[in-house]
Design brief:
By secondary structure, the protein is of the alpha/beta class. 18% of the residues lie in helices and 18% in strands. It is built from nine helices and 21 strands. Helix 1 crosses helix 3 and helix 5 packs antiparallel against helix 9. 48% of the residues are buried.
């Protein structure tokens, strides 16, 4: 999340439904004729009745405000200072969809549950029952208007029916970014590990390092800096999230290799955005190392030279030298029933990589494994090896073996993504992952539970979290 300053030019109130517990007011910070004030004609779409681009954007913001307003309970209204303007990152105008965060954090206010702890301003107001900074907005937010131009290959979808196709569902992005504004954020400098004025944020109280067994508020700066790079060893241990995680997350699935020398081995695997999904029903059979080119190449980038051996079996190839879709297409042409891609040892933090790409002609499932795991599989092929996907009923996908959800902590720090998102191993995808997944609906899944863990009062409807799906676009 990036902090930024907006200029107030015009304000309007978002009307929340009668059952909402929190009034959310949006302050439109765009200049006349731009952003939320863009008068470009637009055709109503997917339940969004706006007839101009600006009005459709406003309507989407109202829908997001209505959803969150009905879930959180605060007698103090929340002010969101919002802009819809281009956002460029590293020279790329399309990478960043939106950005939002608390306008400030407060500590030691009247009614604070803990002293010497930073609370995001909207939560501080809710806990104390009064507006502690009445002259300021509580959340700053900006969304990328460049997606409506010709620069980007994908665009905003403004409908409320989820039929976004290859475009980006704005309502989902709004729900995600408002989650940051309500408090899924912090005051720690992740580069140095230093806390602001040596006081932790409320987020740190439930950020647990499973290697040291310490929460972030118990750590030194150096320990926090190291912990932020702890791939899949940094977790959230809030009780509400733990309770409802089992209702939201699927059970974890492993790749199991049997046959050949030694006992069965189980491995984590990455999935592909193309082909049929890798399921236990579709992914099982004998594994055969594919060869191509002059018969010595193992990358699967040209037609397989041992197609007879591969046909009806699971092909094994190495990463590199061509797109994942090319490897899968060659495996399918050789008659393979599935494909395993072995990573090449690049800096993937010891995690099997996800595989992007699109090819509607590919139907076989494709998965990836790390280089060490791929070597272990290859070592078993000479004496016969069979692969199958097996569900472990004792572990949730995206949680550790104690049921704590994993936080996103790649081995290379990603400013704006590390720590304050869920790990990408979660299945189904969650709203607060670091990037937008295309399969998300308009619920908030475990986001509401994470906010409850930080102290947010919940509305009277205190049932399980709404929605199961989340989103990605990186």
């Amino acid at each position: 999340m990036k902090r930024f300053v907006s200029i107030l030019l015009l304000s309007f109130a978002i009307a929340s439904p009668l059952w909402a517990k929190t009034k959310i007011t949006i302050v439109n910070a765009d200049a006349a004729g731009t952003g939320f004030n863009d008068s470009t004609p637009a055709t109503p779409v997917g339940g969004n009745s706006g007839t101009t681009l600006g009005q459709q954007r406003l309507n989407a913001f109202q829908r997001a405000a209505d959803i969150w307003g009905g879930l959180l309970n605060s007698s103090v209204g929340i002010i969101v200072n919002a802009k819809f303007a281009p956002i460029t990152s590293g020279g790329n105008a399309c990478n960043i969809l939106g950005q939002a965060g608390p306008s400030t954090f407060l500590a030691n206010f009247a009614g604070a549950p803990k002293q010497n702890v930073w609370y995001p301003i909207a939560l501080a107001n809710a806990l104390t029952g009064q507006d502690l900074q009445p002259s300021k907005a509580d959340i700053n937010a900006q969304f990328n208007a460049a997606l409506d131009g010709s620069t980007c290959s994908f665009h905003w979808y403004y409908g409320f029916d989820g039929n976004h196709g290859g475009n980006v569902d704005l309502l989902v992005v709004l729900l995600h970014e408002l989650g940051h504004g309500f408090g899924i954020a912090g005051t720690t400098d992740l580069t140095s590990g230093a806390d602001d004025q040596n006081m932790p944020s409320v987020h740190e109280l439930h950020t647990l390092d499973t290697v040291s067994g310490l929460h972030w508020d118990q750590m030194t700066d150096d320990q926090r800096r190291t912990s932020a790079l702890g791939t899949r060893t940094l977790v959230w241990d809030g009780p509400s999230t733990n309770t409802f995680g089992n209702d939201v997350l699927d059970k974890v699935t492993f790749l199991t290799i049997t046959g050949g020398a030694g006992p069965a081995q189980s491995f984590d695997f990455g999935t592909a955005s193309f082909g049929d999904p890798a399921t236990p029903a579709l992914f099982n059979g004998t594994v055969v190392a594919a060869t191509s080119g002059d018969g010595s190449a193992t990358d699967g980038c040209t037609a397989f030279t041992n197609g007879g051996a591969v046909s009806g079996r699971i092909a094994l190839v190495d990463r590199g030298n061509c797109n994942f879709t090319v490897k899968a297409a060659n495996a399918q042409a050789a008659g393979a029933r599935a494909l395993i891609v072995v990573d090449d040892g690049r800096a993937t933090c010891g995690v099997p990589p996800g595989m992007g790409g699109s090819d509607g002609s590919i139907t076989i499932p494709t998965i990836s494994v790390t280089q060490p795991d791929g070597t272990a599989i290859r070592n078993r092929l000479a004496t016969g090896a069979t692969a199958a996907l097996r569900v472990d009923p004792s572990t949730m996908a995206g949680a550790n073996n104690t049921g704590h959800l994993k936080l996103y902590a790649p081995c290379t720090l990603e400013q704006g993504s590390s720590v304050f998102h869920w790990d990408v191993s979660a299945t189904p995808n969650l709203l607060m992952e670091p990037a937008i997944n295309d399969d998300l609906g308009h619920g908030v899944d475990l986001t509401i539970n994470q906010l409850i863990d930080m102290g947010w009062p919940r509305s009277a409807d205190d049932g399980p979290p709404s929605g199961r799906r989340a989103l990605r676009r990186h």
